[in-house]
Amino acid sequence: MGYDIERFVGYVNEGLLCSICRDVLEDPLQAPCEHAFCTACIHGWLVHHSNCPEDRQVIDVSLLRPLYRYMKNDLNRLQLHCRNSEYGCEMVCSLESIDRHERECEYSQIPCSNAGCTVQIERRNLDGHLAVCEYRSRECPNGCGYTILSAEDTQHNCVAELRTELELLRSEMICRVEEAKHEMESRLDSQRRHMVQKESILQNEIEELKSQMSRMMSDVRSLMAAERQHRQELEQAELEKREL
Fold this sequence. Notes:
GO terms for molecular function: ligase activity; zinc ion binding. By secondary structure, the chain is mainly α.
């Protein structure tokens, strides 16, 4: 559906009216035959028909196109009253900016934000209503910290609420202690595995050093034996030399 033509100030060109609802175009689309429609109107029409409602030419959703730019500009420049004029809003603005204004209009009827409250109230009066709304949330006047959400809650049992709160805190503390315990155990297991791994590596290195030391001692003994043999040969050669 389009914008009610009665809201507009001054003359509205016939070409800017929807060919179906006869109101001012809203989110317009244009057929190849150049007749213009509100998007919602023409989509609803084509569910049951396959032609233009004005000249009966065959059209399809895929043939619909945005409005010509000059027509779109003329449409956006039209001046109209806010839809909340019946509640006292006197704003008149262009069609291009009317949606932005109406989203923020102080005269708009909006629901109370308190759960359970069904009151619809003007945006400008919302703060005053929230201050006295029977569904507003507030703390218990006796100091137990309970949040009162409705008139029935004013008769709540403070001792029971405090006991419930204490149990919740105790449960939360137990959960946190368990989480910390599990985290510490996980860290200790990780460190223990790391230490075992390091110990295994060091043990292997020690065994390798022992093996190298053993080979070196064997080489030293071999060298010493070879040296003794060489010395004996030299002594024998010296004796032979003397005898000669």
